[in-house]
Amino acid sequence: MADKRFVSTTVEVEGREETRIVELPAFAPDPWDEDARLDVVGQCVPRMDATEKVTGRAVYSADVARVGMLHATIVRSTVAAGSVTEIDVSQALALPSVRGVLLRADVEGIKYDGGQLFDPNIRYAGQPLAAVCAESREVAERAAALVVTRVERAPHAATIRAALAKDAPKVRPKGNTGRNHPAIAERGDVDAAIETADVVVRREYRTPVQLHSCMEPHGAVAEWIGDHVTVWESTQGVFNSRADLARAFGLAHAQVRVIKDYMGGGFGAKNGASVAACIAVALAKKTGAPVRCVFDRAAEQFDTGNRSATVQRVTLAAKKDGTLAAIALEAEVMMGVGGWFAAPGKIYHEMYACPNVRTSETAVYTHTGAMASFRAPGHVEGAFGLECAMDALARELGMDPLALRRKNYAGRDQEKNRPYSDKRLDRCYDEGSKRFQWRARGRPGRGQAAAQDGRFRRGQGMSSLCWGAGGGPPAYATVRINADGTVDVLAGTQDLGTGARTVLAQIAAEALGAGIAHVRTVLGDTERLPYAGNSWGSMTTASVGPAVRMAAEDARTKLLDAASAIMGVPAKHLDARNSVVTSRQRGAAGRELSFAAIGEELGNVMIIGQGSRGPNPDRTAIFTFGAHFAEVEVDTETGRVRVLRLVAAHDSGRIINPRLAESQLEGGILQGIGYALFEERVVDESLGLPLNPTLHDYKVPTLADLPAIESFFVPGADTTANHTGAKGLAEPPNIGVAPAIANAVCDAIGVEVTEIPLTPWRVLAALEKASRSAR
To answer: Which strands form 98-102's sheet, in the order they lie side by side?
Structure first.
């Protein structure tokens, strides 16, 4: 490998693997193992952008204001399927201060997320058909309401059941129904293992369409200067958005600049140039003025992607001692009108040691908005089916659910038969169950429900989780030491609100030997910063962090060389800590110079370090793991489920900033509680229209729903994954929450509820069904 400059490597992104050709770094720093002396990394450094956010000075895309800026509003379809026969914009153009409209003819050939902008073939309610811009948003909205669209309606299919019917209408241009051929993955002989197993359980689980519900909606501001366009967009990937816009408008990458400073959430819905960005760019070009296009809340809810609904038919087969003999899944996955296939089956192959596994997954297309990445896509849905089925198997075996999971602990990556870079799930089980005070249970009938009477009943449940979060190349960074001793960390990545600015500054400060107060991170600008990939798949720290560390190490070497010339001490006898270079050489020991003093001596000579992310280790699975434990109270008269407490133990490698990392865990857990208890897009099947497209009707968790949460990380540094020892952690906490809560509900009431969210009517229906069966 030493003779090669470019090599191939495998990177896992959002549950799918990609092979990339990458440049080998100029050098590889020694890993920060668990015994490394670290002063800044591992500390709860305050969030560096906190002041701007709490004082309201942080500028989000919707806050960007340019001289002479116009405001755009989108005209959307109010039917689920059909074709546009006419769009009359005369009344809109008659309004004072309306400056222009954008129609199909203006954007011929422009695509976003694989779809044609202003496609006259309507495939879902809310589909963009045209846009209007005016001197104020209020006038633009009035003008959009005056646009008359004449549509020829067509039959639609808004649910999995409707799309799979024999007479289902066509959803996609190619293919004759909403049905796709199933994707099948198998190892071993599943049918034979089921036939000879001691115990077999079969269940059907259903999960809903979940909406991202970001606080900041999709939006962009575009401004042309000559043949160059600058776009301020709420995006999880400035370079992805640049590539999308360049392709859509026939521009070179150098003609497109994308800026993203602050962001109010993405969760996977903002991975490229949005329709808002495309419309802003097109209208700005047409009118010659800067244009802002920001979605309203209803549009944000029904036209920015979603987590797929699933139907999962699960079969688990085991020996009497609990050893898994076979795992089988047949699933339908609701794709809406499109998207990429993030399916629930992957976790069935990964989570447990089992020689015989088969998953069959069918993509079902419907006349509803397209699916999109959503915080651990596929794994969240799959974990609900798999982990609830594991509890059902434990009850059938008369075995403690935690003991069953320990029994089937996977020591290697089961899907590809590779070693793990590191795995501490057993530590998560140990410490999580201890802190939770897990109540082990054995034979059937000895659950919590059997020992309770009365209206309110309590139960405990748990779940396991895994997620590929090793990150990977390409990612580049620059570390620049200014003449006054301050340090700039430059990286073209994004901070979605997770604290990337702070974490990358800590890594740079540690490697350089700088005081954290002297370091700042500059992010989110394709023109001024080196390339970094999207902030998705729990990749940012694990991908960009090693590049930042390498750049800081490179700058440190140059800094010590400069200090050596000034101090007359060999560089090998110098050390840097807290922005001061000190000598260890006999006779010169104790002599020191601050970074600022060195900068003053150097004058205009600038020290710049460069770094890049190296390849991932060959034939190695880089995963994070976790175990969740939940306690609930169920009101058997109303069906209301209340989560009382939740303990989450996670294995995520080295934690750069514990406070920010724990905040990520708590945010993911809250989102998981919403998925388990409340969140569900409701569509009028006869009309194909979403019925709850605002945060008034689409319930997300609030402080009133907040349980006692104890989230923590088991100690460790995964130096096989990368030399910082850190792995991703943003998505895993969302995976295990819903099954842990559902298993706790079953423990409380003695009845399985196999569909989420666990609404009162579903809980009461399960209780009534069990009551009828017992009569």
So the answer is: 98-102, 128-134, 70-76, 291-294, 219-225, 228-233, 256-259
Residue showing tokens 């110079």: 593
Give the orientation angle of helix 540-567 with respect to helix 595-602, to 10 degrees: 60
Q: Are 560 and 576 in contact (CB under 8 A)?
A: yes
Q: Parse the chain into domains and list their residue ranges.
A: 6-60+471-612, 64-154+218-294, 310-470+619-774
Fold type of domain 64-154+218-294: Aldehyde Oxidoreductase; domain 4 (3.30.365)
Structural tokens at position 376:
């651990």
Where the chain has pLDDT below 50, the residues are: 1, 176-178, 445-446
Give the residue numbers marked as catalytic. 731
Q: Do the domains 6-60+471-612 and 310-470+619-774 sit in the same CATH topology, yes or no?
A: yes
- Which residue type sits at 757? P
Write out pLDDT tens, residues 67-122.
999 999 999 999 999 999 999 999 999 999 999 999 999 998 887 766 789 999 99
Q: Is 313 exposed, middle or buried (0-12, 13-18, 19+ CB in 10 A)?
A: middle
Mutual orientation of helices 275-287 and 238-249 as an angle, nearest 10°? 50
Residue 134 and residue 230: Cα distance in Å, rounded?
Answer: 20
- Whether residue 742 contacts residue 758, with contact meaning beta carbons closer than 8 Å, is answered with yes
pLDDT at position 450, please?
Answer: 58
Beta strands in 622-762 (DSSP E): 623-635, 641-651, 683-684, 689-690, 708-713
DSSP string, 141-193: HHHHHH-EEEEEE-----SHHHHTSTTPPP-SSSSSSSB-PPEEEEES-HHHH
Q: Give the type of residue at 180.
A: N
What is the separation, in whole angstroms, between the first and last Cα of the chain? 72
Q: How far is CA 364 from CA 81, 164, 300, in A?
A: 16, 7, 23
pLDDT score at 728 = 94
The secondary structure of residue 272, as a DSSP letter, is S
- Kindly give, in sequence order, each residue whose CB lies less than 8 Å from that of residue 137, ignoring residues fewer than 6 positions away: 71, 73, 292, 294
Contact predicate 439/326, CB 8 Å: no
Topology of the domain covering 310-470+619-774: Aldehyde Oxidoreductase; domain 4 (3.30.365)
Is residue 549 within 8 Å of 611, Cβ to Cβ?
Answer: yes
Q: Which pLDDT score, from 0 to 100, does residue 451 have? A: 65
* pLDDT value, residue 1: 46
- The torsion angles phi and psi of 430, rounded to 5 degrees, stand at -65, -55
3-state SS class at 134: strand
pLDDT of residue 181: 85
Residue 443 pLDDT: 59
Q: 649-668: b or e for each residue (b if 16 or more CB lie within 10 Å)? A: bbbbbbbbbeebbbbbbbbb
Which pLDDT value is given to residue 115?
Answer: 76
Distance CA 206, CA 755 (A): 5
Establish how many alpha carbons lie within 13 A of residue 696's alpha carbon, considering only the half-sphere containing its beta carbon. 3
Residue whose pair of structure tokens reads 């993911």 in the numeric block:
668
CA atoms within 13 A on the CB side of 281: 32
| Residue 205: its H or E element | strand 199-207
pLDDT at 446: 47
CATH says 6-60+471-612 is which class? alpha beta
Query: Strand pairing partners for 458?
Result: 633
What 3-state class would DSSP assign to 369? coil
**Residue 310 contacts residue 335 (beta carbons within 8 Å):** no
What's the DSSP call for residue 294?
Answer: E
DSSP assignment of 18-78 equals: EEEEEEPPS--PPP--TT---SSTTS-PPPTTHHHHHHT----GGG---TT-EEEEEEE-S
Rg of the chain over CA atoms, in angstroms? 28
